[in-house]
Amino acid sequence: MMKFKIQPLIIFLGIVSLIFSGRQMLQTKTMILPSWFLTLFFLLITLCVSFALGVLAKKMLNSKWQTRTFASIFAIAISLIYYVSQYRSAYTVFIPKDYVGEVRLLVSNEKENDFFVNKYGIGYINRTTFDEGFYPKIIKGDNDITKQVKEYSKGALATTSEDVYSYEYLSFSVPAKTENIEDKDIEELIKIKAIDTTRLYRRKLLSQ
């Protein structure tokens, strides 16, 4: 009787794991498709695959357990695999309380991140964090504005036509009450020494 009593618990855990995975995916910032679309797609595929594997497992084992019990086991496994594969470290980015506009985290040649953004919207991110990604917490002054930041993007720039290196960066915009904000480009920021180029990681461009 015990094996039949445990089935509702397995099914419950399967549902919880899907809800947790969906919630985690909704919080993930994306650069192309909206998070809700990817979440629905992931849940639909997970359900279909889990039930297909559940049917196969029930037949192969000739078990009296319900198909949805096996499906729940596979749903739990898929959710755990997703969570582990999508794990990202969490870091806090500090922004001056009066700053609005684009923030750029330039890839540095240093081991540590420098997420204390200056008055020009410049901070520094190390190579590993840039490549692996992270879950950001955005603090402006004393306020948490993480939910106000809608999207993140990556970019690269060669400062001159003769430059054989490019500077990479992660950027996002700090919302303002007015849209009439003129952001300085990276070349201009370098000229006014708002960016310390000695700290930057330079990726060599492919020869033409």
Structural class: alpha/beta
Portion of residues within helices: 25-40%
Q: How many β-strand stretches? A: 8
The low-confidence runs, each spanning 5 or more residues with pLDDT under 50, are none
Number of domain units = 2
Largest sheet: 5 strands, mixed
Please write the string of helix (H) and strand (E) elements.
Answer: HHHEEEHEEEEHE
Which labels suit this protein?
208 residues; alpha/beta; 5-stranded mixed beta sheet; 3-stranded mixed beta sheet; 8 strands; 23% strand; membrane; transmembrane helix; transmembrane
Please tell me about this protein's structure:
It contains 5 helices and 8 strands, in the order αααβββαββββαβ. With 208 residues, it is an alpha/beta fold. The strands form 2 sheets. Strands 2, 3, 6, 7 and 8 form a 5-stranded mixed β-sheet that branches. A hairpin with a 7-residue loop joins β6 and β7. α1 runs antiparallel to α2 and α1 runs parallel beside α3. The longest helix is centred in the N-terminal third of the chain and has 27 residues. The N and C termini lie far apart (72 Å). The model has no long low-confidence stretch (mean pLDDT 82).
Q: TL;DR of this structure?
A:
Helix content is 40%, strand content 23%. It is of the alpha/beta class and 208 residues long. It folds into two domains: 2-85, no CATH class; 89-204, no CATH class.
Topology summary:
Layout: H1 2-26, H2 35-61, H3 67-85, E1 89-95, E2 101-108, E3 122-126, H4 127-132, E4 134-140, E5 143-144, E6 153-157, E7 165-174, H5 186-191, E8 202-204
Parallel strand pairs: 1-4, 2-3
Antiparallel strand pairs: 2-7, 4-5, 6-7, 7-8
Helix pairs in contact: 1-2, 1-3, 2-3
